[in-house]
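Usage

Read records sequentially. Each one opens with the input sequence:
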Amino acid sequence: MFSGISQRFWINLLGFQLAWWCAILLRQDGLLIMALLLLAHLMLHRQPGQELKAILLCGCTGFAIDLILTRMGLFIFAEGHWPPVWLLCLWFCFSATLRQSLSYFREHPLLASGCGAVAGSLTYLAAARLGAVSFGVSELAMFGMLLVIWMLLFPLLLKLSHSEIREVWGDAN
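and closes with the structure output:
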């Protein structure tokens, strides 16, 4: 009866927005809510196995980028010299949008690059303004770096989330 409900555009998009706000405002205290949102997404998905593979692959890819930026001193978190667990969970939540509410961009790679560059960068600036992260360089310099990173990263994540799953993980479904 509820199979596939988490794949509906507005439900998926609103679920991610809730996760983003929990991560940025509550940080570690928002982990349980984010985990429950992810669990609900998978339980209400038509292909939970494939979706889990996409979430893990894309989430770990994005988190690896943030890990590199943190270790380079470009991202600074109050939790220490490593990106916090809430950020990993947020990456998993974002990855749960790639095959659902953000899937339109899959067939439009140039639009994905442009929108990814702007929207991806702005979310980090918003997170910084809300105190979730600080930058080791000026805000303008960080924005420029994030523009380039997200211009490449968003189309890559879309590709990984859709067509590369069978090649990377094998076909379990």
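Summary fields computed downstream for this record:
- The chain has a mean pLDDT of 93.
- The two ends are 21 Å apart (CA to CA).
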